[in-house]
Amino acid sequence: MAKCNAQKSEYLLFSDTVAVGLSFDNVFPRSRVSSLNFCTEHAKRTCCERRHTDMIKRRVIQEGVAFAHHGSQSNCFEKATRLWCSLCDADVGSGQLKGICEPLCEDFYSSCRDDLFTYDEGNIQKLNFCAVNALHCSPLSFITSSPVEFCNKIGFNVVEGPANEEVCYSGTPSAVRKGEAPKEVAKPATADRKLADVMRQFLSSQWVIVMQVVVFAMFSVFWYRRWKRRAAIHQPDDGPSVTGSHGLDSSSTHQERQRQLRAEKAVARQKGE
Q: What does the pLDDT look like over 133-172, one tens digit per residue?
C-alpha cells in the first residue's frame, strides 16, 4: 500500500482565485468512517481528513447555490460532487492515479452539456457553474464540444484513452475495489487540537455567514442612528420667527402708547380744573 502524497496531488481543486491541490500527511491511507461526514463513499479507504472534506464541502456548497438558482433538473451537479470527492480516494491521494479516466469525463460532459456555465472573471482557463449574479452564462455545449477541455477547465486532469483503473479514476472508489484500510488510530487530543477542531467546524458552518450578516446590520443601524443624532445637533438654528418677533414688538409698542394717552388725558383734566 502506497503512502498518501505529502505533496499537492495532480488533481485540481479550484479555490476562489487559484487552482490548488490537496496535500496530505505522509502516512498510509486509513479508514475514517467515524470522522468524515462528507465524501463518505471514500471513508473506508482514504487519505482525506476532516479538514480536506470540509474544503471540498465548501466548494460544493458554493457551486450548489448557483446550480440550484437556475433550476436545472439534470444530474450534472451530483456527478460534479462525486468527482470533487474523488480527491479523497486513497489511490488518488497516494498519487497512483493521475486523473480521471476519459470515459468518466465524457459521461460528466454528457450530463452537463445543457446546463449553464460561465468563464471565471479574468481566467478563460477556468469554468464555473453559472453564478446567481453572473452577467453572462451559456449552455456548456455552446462553450465547448470537447469533454476533455470541459473537465480540465472545471478542475480535473484527464487521462485520455480507455479506462484503466490502475492509471486513472474510473468512478469506482478504491474502498470498493481493494477493501477497507486499517482503521485510524485515534490521536490523544491536546487542548490546542481540540480548540483547532472546534474553530474549524465553526468556520465551516453556514451559521457564520448568517452571524456576519446580522452583525453588519446591527452596526449599520447603530452608525445610522449616530449620524442622525449628529446631524440634528449641528442643524443651524433659524432663531425666532419673524412673525413671532413682530408680534412681540407690536404688543409692547401698543401698551406704551396706551400709557402715554392715559397720561396726556390726566394732564388735560388737571388743566381744565
A: 778 889 999 999 999 999 999 888 899 998 888 999 999 9
From CA 27, how far away is CA 18, in angstroms rounded?
27
* CA distances to 257, 259, 261, 263, 264 from 268, in Å: 16, 14, 11, 9, 6
pLDDT value, residue 206: 59
Task: Indicate the Cα dihedral angle 146, 152, 157, 159, nearest 10°.
Answer: 10
**Alpha carbon distances (Å) from 80 to 63, 66, 67, 77, 171:** 10, 13, 11, 5, 11
Helices then strands, counting H and E runs in the chain, come out as 10, 7
- Higher pLDDT: 240 or 194? It is 194
What distance in Å separates the CA atoms of residue 154 and residue 156, rounded to the nearest whole number?
Answer: 6
pLDDT band at 100 (very low <50, low <70, confident <90, very high): very high
Strand partners, 138: 117
Which of 64-73, 143-152, 207-216 is predicted least confidently? 207-216
**Residue 88, number of CB atoms within 10 A of its CB:** 29
pLDDT of 98 higher than 50: yes
How far, in Å, CA of 93 to CA of 50, rounded?
Answer: 14
Neighbours of 210 (CB within 10 A): 10
Three-state DSSP class for residue 116: strand
CA distances to 109, 117, 204 from 56, in Å? 20, 20, 11
What is the spatial distance between Cα 11 and Cα 46, in angstroms, rounded to a whole number?
15
